[in-house]
Amino acid sequence: MTRTTQLVTELNAYDQEVDACILVAHGDVLQIIQTAFQKWDGRYHRQLPHLDTAVLRPLHLSPQ
After folding, report:
1. Which of 20, 58, 59 is nearest to 39 (CA)?
2. Closest among 41, 59, 61, 62 to 51, alpha carbons compared
3. CA–CA separation, 52 vs 11, rounded Å?
4. Any idea of the CA torsion for 42, 20, 22, 9, to the nearest 10 degrees?
5. Gap between the Cα atoms of 43 and 16, Å rounded
């Protein structure tokens, strides 16, 4: 969780002019990033819907 959220933070600080960024990784890593955006413990990443190959899933920071 720490490494993935650090990457997203660095990408966000890199260029505020970019509207979108596509992250490519193994499903578990992407689901862990999604738990961070939802402010869940990363251990619960398997409770999210399974990611099929080449699926785009937008990430939005949860207000919680």
Report:
1. 59
2. 59
3. 24
4. -40
5. 30
The Cα 39–Cα 54 span in angstroms is 24
Model's pTM, two decimal places? 0.73
Q: What angle do CA 8, 13, 17 make, to 5 degrees?
A: 110
Q: How many helices (H) and strands (E) in the chain?
A: 2, 0
What would the pLDDT profile of 3-60 be if each residue is shown by its tens digit? Answer: 888 888 888 777 667 777 888 888 888 898 889 888 899 888 889 888 888 888 888 8
